[in-house]
Amino acid sequence: MIGRVAGAPIVLTPSSALMAVIIALLFAPTFSGQLGIGTGAAYGIAAVFAVILLLSILVHELAHGLVAGAFGLRVREFALTLLGGHTQMTTAPASPGNGALIAASGPLSNLVLAAVLGLGASVAPDGGAAYVVLYTAASANLFVGVLNLVPGLPLDGGQVLEAAIWAVSGNRRLGAVVAAWAGRVVAVAFVLVVFFWQARSAWGIDLYQVVWAAVVGAFLWSGATQALRQARTERAVEGFSVETLGARAVGIAATAMLAEADAARSVSGAEAVVLLSPDGRPAAYVDPAAAQTVPAAERTRVPVTAVAVGLPAGAVVDADLRGGALLSALSAVSRFAPVMVAVRGHQVVALVRGADVAARLRS
Questions:
Q1: CATH code for the domain in which residue 307 is found
Q2: Which is nearest to 114 in space by CA: 147, 79, 160?
Q3: 140 and 30 housed in the same domain
Q4: pLDDT by residue (tens digit) across 134-159?
Q5: What is the pTM of this model?
Q6: What span, in angstroms and rounded, lies between the C-alpha atoms of 156 and 103?
Q7: Which residues constitute the domain of residue 80?
Q8: Which of 238, 261, 280 is the last residue of a domain?
């Protein structure tokens, strides 16, 4: 962490330092040729250029976070990484308008930086180091700003497209799916355009440009695929309920015998039995494996507590929750209780195991 803005930490990951080194290595020969200077000086100027680009990326991410904060969203962190950066927020935008403005603020900040740096280059001595660095940085910010406005996830323009479709259809997930597929189209189109442009070049194919385009295309395709997978996961999560995630359960007094638990489970059609304390709080649940070891002749004399597993206080979720709200509640409780009880009012509805929920999410 190198600082905080609006209460959120700015994280400089080790991979971002690697990105700066790669930028310096790639641009040093260019600066050497343009300025007619030695290798050492060229690498020094390239290092300054790399720092300017890192700061430009940081400004991009800060723009996202500050606009999000203006809409009441809290930012968890700003991070600089190998592939640029990201702004992690604790919650998603509540409306398509907010989402579009938050997304667009990043590339727009790059366009503003491009104008400022270009103005700086225009007043710098023509052909000097300051001119070359400022002009190149302005061009890089212009490229980043325009590229990020292309309508396809994971680019910011894809988030704007997602918000637009959300606004028109009222379905946020539909917007994400369309924007993700648009991102895949953009990824393929970008690689093809660069390849055909290189193929028609009078100087022949520049392998560096082709490899660079392939890396960018792969990054865009991967991000679009991840967004599509996330949209499908959200669709599955929308159908989550305690009935689909847990085992139907019935509650009985903790003073009951095992035969009474058998009868209650048979009458209600439940799969699990939850023991209730005198105040009605779920206190334990019957372990099916342990209960099966008790002979039928002994079940009228064996208390349910003999085959029960205790539940910590608070291992309860609201049975009326659904979708993401239910998943958030289960996640919070699972931090201290691997098994929890879903209740509606004072009635036991289901027994939910954190491991089963995790397996459902993986599938």
A1: 3.10.580.10
A2: 147
A3: yes
A4: 999 999 999 999 999 999 999 999 99
A5: 0.74
A6: 5
A7: 3-238
A8: 238
> Whole-angstrom Cα distance, residue 110 to residue 116?
10
Distance between CA atoms of residues 222 and 215, nearest Å: 10
Number of Cβ within 10 Å of residue 297's Cβ equals 7
Residue 138: what pLDDT? 96
- What distance in Å separates the CA atoms of residue 318 and residue 73, rounded to the nearest whole number? 26
User: 186-204 burial, b for 16+ CB within 10 Å, e for fewer?
Assistant: bbeebbeebbeebeeeeee
CA-to-CA distance for 137 and 121, rounded, in angstroms? 9
Strand partners, 3: 10
Kind of pairing, strands 308-310 and 316-318? unpaired
CB-facing half-sphere around the CA of 155: CA atoms within 13 A: 28
Q: Give yes or no for a contact between 186 and 150, defined as CB atoms under 8 angstroms apart.
A: yes
- Residue of 291, 282, 354 lying closest to 312 (CA atoms): 282
Confidence of residue 195 (pLDDT cuts 50, 70, 90): confident
Cβ burial, residue 295 (10 Å; 0-12/13-18/19+): exposed
Band of residue 231 on the pLDDT scale cut at 50, 70, 90: confident
pLDDT at 69: 93
Model confidence band, residue 204 (pLDDT cutoffs 50, 70, 90): low
